[in-house]
TrEMBL record:
InterPro entries xrefs: Beta-barrel_TonB_sf (IPR036942), CarboxyPept-like_regulatory (IPR008969), Plug_dom (IPR012910), Plug_dom_sf (IPR037066), TonB-dep_rcpt-like (IPR039426)
Swiss-Prot/TrEMBL keywords: Cell outer membrane, Membrane, Receptor, Transmembrane, Transmembrane beta strand, Transport
Coiled-coil segments: none
Protein's name in the database: Outer membrane receptor proteins, mostly Fe transport
Membrane topology, record value: Multi-pass membrane protein
A Pfam short name: Plug
PROSITE patterns per the UniProt record, alphabetical: TONB_DEPENDENT_REC_3
Location of the TonB-dependent receptor plug domain: 306-382
Domain of life: Bacteria
Family: Belongs to the TonB-dependent receptor family.
Gene Ontology CC entries for this record: cell outer membrane
Annotated localization: Cell outer membrane
Record lineage: Bacteria, Pseudomonadati, Bacteroidota, Flavobacteriia, Flavobacteriales
Amino acid sequence: MTKQQKGSCFFQTAIKKMLSSTTNRHFKIFLSSLTLFSITITGYSQELPSISGQYSATALKEVIVDIEKQTNFKFYFLDQWVHGISITKTYENEDINTALQTVLENTSLNFHFLESQKRIILLENTIVYDELPNGFFGSEEVIVANSNTQTKATAPPPTFYSANTQTKRNYDVAKIGKSDPNHLQESYRLTGRAINSKTGEPIQDLAIRVKTSNQITVTDANGNYNLQLPAGYNVLSIRAMGIAATDREIIMFNNGNLDVLMEEGLQQLDEVVVEADAFKNVEDAITGSEQIDSEESKNIPLVLGERDILSVAKALPGISSAGEGAMGLNVRGGKTDQNLVLLDDAVIYNPQHFFGIFQALNPFTTKGVDIYKGAIPVEFGGRLSSVFDIRTKNGNVEKFSGEGSIGPVTGNLALEIPLEKEKSSLVVGGRGAYADWILRSLDDESLRNSNASFFDGIVKYHNKINDKNEVKATAYYSRDAFSITSDSLYNYDNRLFSVRWDHRKSVKTNSALIVDNSNYGFGIDFDGDTNTDFKLDYSINETELKYKLRTSINDKNTLDYGGSAKYYSVNPGSIEPDGSESNVIELTIDNEQALEAALFIGDEITFNEKLSVNLGVRYAFFASLGEATQRTYEEGMPKNESTVQDTIAYSSNENIKTYGGPEARISTRYLFTPDFSVKASLNNSYQFLHTLSNNTTVSPIDTWKLSDLNIEAQKGYQASLGLYKNFKENEYELSIEGYYKKMENVLDFKTGANLFLNENVETQILQGDGKAYGVEFLLKKKSGDLNGWLSYTYSRSLYRFDSEFSEERINNGEFFPSNFDKPHDVSVITNYRFTKRYSLSTNFVYQTGRPITYPVGTFRFNNADFVAFSDRNEFRIPDFYRLDLGLNIEGNHKKNKLAHSFVTISVYNVLGRNNPYSVFFVTDDGEVKALQSSIFSVPIPSITYNFKF
């Protein structure tokens, strides 16, 4: 018997075994008349019949029946292979071979002619050969896919796997891709997403290992993974903490996709905890990045028992604030306006309530935050210091659930509502303050006589339409209203929405289309005893369109690329009289408009197991637009009323001034051992948006200003170098990272500046140089009864404003400390678990006192007394330190309960330290006296009840 005849006999046997239990009519007829045959793939010896037809979303089975009627061929297939497939094609006298190729091109089906019997066999994924490899006979395995006899000798051999039907499988064997005899390869790429089957959320840091080769990959923040696998049979071992362990059998016929739905699972471990992301801090090529899960804030005692990921962020190295109760965060010596804070892709301008004491984010709808303070990913831009990428949860797609808390100041509630099982859900969260008693406990008398309230709400819709498309939409609103004195009511609000469409374009490419809008505004209503009542307001609005893609080219290169465009509209402020008796003169500052755009591309390159590099370039562009009126000033002279040269009027959307240029993003990691690496990065960036403030600390009524003809864009350059080491089977993480940052055109103000409602605010502003440098140390214990971290930062933040003119020079043109320069910053977070239900948490903070300008003497001139001040920020207020304690009590862990509870009993500032918020000076009987204002000068106890159902 020839080899070809043996192949034909084998094919008969294989088909009989495969179809022994089928009742398919076509296959039974075929099986009863099966004889020795020759299979032709690339052609047909007789003249092929042609077909005609117009099909519009026609079921594939109906198309096949129509082809059978037009020709003398019969088809053989299993019904489940064609179920749910529809065809939209038009044919006019097309030969059947060409027609079938186009009919089946987007399916997993191949076809083969049986020349002598005028039959066409459909096979799922596979192709059929008339030759078999040497040594095949004698084996009792069943062929699944083979290689083409006409393929070159280097093509992979046929693929086999055990056909033992006695094997118990939790999942069917997954067949990936469609065999193509003209493009056979030894390996193919598998991509997909890991999704929590209960909540519908992507699973990050899930370890996927190929059992035959020990090749491993880890899912990213969106649950995506990709692997290059050998053609044929493979077994994937999928593991993560809190997820039921799963093995998946797959057969690779071509490149393809496999999304894995994972079930939650609990395992009781004795001593060793295995985590999928155990080496993440060492292996990532990105420097200066941090990740905080919202659950991490649960066991950290914060003011009044509130969970707050932004306060947790301040306990990490390189991140601080100007003081207790100050709004905004300072990252690596940068100003608060140099941070890009995103909530589900949309900018949130003021993410804090109540003078910065609480975050303006519902902790039960917030999933976590990724913080980039060193190497910023290439898709982000517009700020010099950092990115806070805050993500909300996807709702539970299985059942109605919720979580909430009741505390002494706020109440929180979040509901997760399934809309369509396993596909879509809605998250609704609300949060508000219901007491002003905290203000009455403060030292400052004016604050004790004040009142404040706030609330925030969020709605998120999530729909996994199919394996290739997913839509998310978020709407958010927050509002604060407070009265510091009896005659003034202040209010500010954030409003944003975003819509994101994630689309899998191909096996290798994922895309995201994002549309978002953000608005921030504040107002002041003054109602005094004199005729000066007024209403004042300010707002900034931006709308963005962004499209980004990620393509896995091969095992060594992954591209991120795309573009964005953003439109700004700023109302710089207006004031109007409140009431007919008010003497206030109405004033409105002209609106500002601008366009900001960017194109970016980056490549994540893996040279080998040790060396990984992220290279990227981003081109940023900004155009200030009319309608506007701008002044020009004499070249080389101070900007003031006496140096004005001309006043230029710009029409609507006319270009006033453009800024921008290329931004480099370079980050590299070298792995000395699996648990020890060195990383370095270098990047530069532009910032076109600035805050105007002459307050010592940031306030909610600071205004944002766009770059224009007279205020230039800021520029920043940063280099960093770090060492990362894990110890004791990854129980401990240690990192030491140093950085140096240089800044240009940073803003400050002239002495006595009037910044708000100033039509020519550039005359009050200075632009100069800045530099910041430091070393950050972090030691973290991740597991065990005692866990937490110790962070220490030594850093300096310095500014210089130099000019030949004294009115534009500060401290004789020398570098001086910024308002938030704090050389030493120590944080210690600990949590000790006594039992599964009881734990004790501590939070200790120490910081160098921030800089301040002191009066150093008095003098008399023209019969008037004057105060002489020191150089700006020459002195410091006393150092800050605080200890907080918290006792955490979890409810019992019975499964069948209406709700699971968690109680936190905490004491904020347990030592009663009278930390200064600010130091100010008054003249009393001709003597200058220093007074100190504190926010929390006594211990603040609280009890918060948390529940989950």
